[in-house]
Amino acid sequence: METIKWAVNEMPKTDDSQLQVMSLENVAKARAFHESFPQYSVTPLVKLDHMAAYLGLKEVYVKDESYRFGLNAFKVLGGSFAMARYIAKQTGKDVSELPYNVLTSDELRKEFGQATFFTATDGNHGRGVAWAANKLGQKSVVLMPKGSTQTRLNNILKEGAKATIEEENYDECVRMANAMAEKTENGVMVQDTAWDGYEEIPAWIMQGYGTMANEADDQLQLAALGFIDVVRANLGLGADDDCVKLTQGRAQLFGSIELLDDLVACLAQLRHGGLVHSISYENTHDKISLYLFCEIRRDRICRAL
Description:
Oligomer: single chain
């Protein structure tokens, strides 16, 4: 058996006021919004008995997001809810007043009009933004970094978005998309990374991801699991693993780990107090491409669970 590389979350608990962003109230609104879509269904929480035996564990469960809205990824949860939150803010409503049937109504169209949602992506987030914009009668523009596959581009184009693969890395595509949004009437940047001055929409995206954790929490209760030893989250831009905090209240979360390969082991050190560097690779087929040529910013992106 190969050695599994992992890192224990040793960050101390905090009274950070920003934790309220992921309150159960906010996540409940996100889930109610997603449930209002006619395409919605709860994704499976799969019990992996053979994997548990292989790892020497009692039980292992995996949340299978390949079923999410037929898009094969959870990212649509964030982009769609951020759109709803934005429209709610612009119309002076609470997002709970804007389920799918209201957002797609003629009345809302007359009141709000139509926005163009801009984003940068290597595939899943952009496809989710394009899908949600299409379903809600809005427009979308997606910029993809150099090395993105034609298949992923085609999937986004099928959702009615304007999408292109640029000759730039991910960070530059983010800057380009944001500049385009600022110059476009009713243009809105919907990005799953944050920077100084751009934090509200990424927070809404995180809340949208909370639907996934909220579903899993219900499913674990149905499985009569009152105690969870470890929750494993992907190490990426931060929003996915942040949403896993939601399990801590009911499931008595003991700790959290992140499974690491050689590259991610390096990034994990940044998350746990190491120096912060900007990472860029020429070889777009290298493993780094999975991390979207990210500039690792400890203050916003590299955060512990």
